[in-house]
Amino acid sequence: MSENISIIGLGLMGSALAGALLDAGHRVTVWNRSAGKADPLVARGAVRAATAAEAAGASPLVIVCVLDYAAAHQALDGAPLDGRVVLNLTNGRPAEARRTAAWVESQGGTYLDGGIMAVPQMIGQPGALILYSGSRAAFERHEQALSALAAPRFLGEEPGLAALHDLAMLTGMYGQIGGFLQAAALVRSEGLPVAEFTEELLVPWLHAMAALLPRWAEEIEARDYATDVSNLEINQVGLENLVTAFEEQGVKPDLFLPMKAILDARVAGGHGAEGLPGLIEEIQPR
User: Fold this and answer.
1) Structural domains in the chain?
2) Can you tell me the distance from the alpha carbon of 103 to that of 49, in angstroms, rounded to the nearest whole number?
């Protein structure tokens, strides 16, 4: 079923969102501070709004995708939100989502927050995921239209849940990137081909290690870190060896040192017999 939907913010992601909605047959109104960014979308059938307030007033569903929450508030300030659903797909923090939800509701609107787990080129394609939190009724009302953007996953009515899960997933991603860069630097230090190492050795190894994570998550929830594999004392020796190898190869160990410091602190606290999941108690003490 075709809907009237407004998009505020036409950067790479906002433009991709608007394009996917147009492709799905929805009537799309667009606005951007730099008006020229709307030209390609208008050529495809979108309606250009002269102001953000005009865009918000044009549709019952208003999607905001701008630089940050401050920019979202600025764009929506003075806009007619009464009776409308505001879906904020701007990257931010849980506390910002909660404050924005309260503000939108004070204006008579209904709030949804979202975390986009995709790059712009993935929008509308298999593999894209968007996390949602806030009004369940609003999500269910517009779920079909939102499915044109990415697979939708509703996490709950607490407005900050989408941002929290978004940041948690990004944390895992950046941790993996940090490990990859440290490993790539070590391989390159010996003049070896990084691409061959990555494809043939590193990626299969990371897939195998990722299979351990569900069990580790259960151990974290139970706060039971006993292990019959490699405990922290063994890993401490291994990490020290890695740091020394980096230095001998002329590679800075900077991306690796924070985890080593946390592990060293955990062992010093008398927890050397634990497994690696026990490190969570150092970064989030009870």
Assistant:
1) 4-157 (3.40.50.720), 165-283 (1.10.1040.10)
2) 23
Going by C-alpha positions, the residue among 198, 275, 12 that lies closest to residue 122 is 12
Q: Cα–Cα distance between 75 and 9 in angstroms, integer?
A: 9
pLDDT tens digits for range 80-131: 999 999 999 999 999 999 999 999 999 999 999 999 999 999 999 999 999 9
Pinpoint the alpha helices (H) of 44-190.
52-57, 69-76, 94-106, 136-146, 161-188
User: Nearest to residue 261, comparing CAs of 239, 277, 241?
Assistant: 239
Kindly give, in sequence order, each residue whose CB lies less than 8 Å from that of residue 49, ignoring residues fewer than 6 positions away. 6, 29, 30, 31, 55, 58
Say which residues have a Cβ less than 8 Å from residue 169's Cβ, sequence separation at least 6: 115, 117
What's 274's DSSP letter?
Answer: B
Rounded Cα–Cα distance for residues 259 and 267 (Å): 12
Per-residue DSSP letter, 67: S
Residue 127 vs residues 124, 130, 150, 154, 175: alpha-carbon distances, Å: 9, 10, 8, 16, 21
Tokens of 208: 């195998």
Per the structure block, which two tokens stand in for 91? 């990257």
Quote the pTM value: 0.94
d(CA 60, CA 147): 17
In order of 176, 188, 197, 216, 253, the CA distances from 202 in angstroms are 11, 14, 6, 21, 18
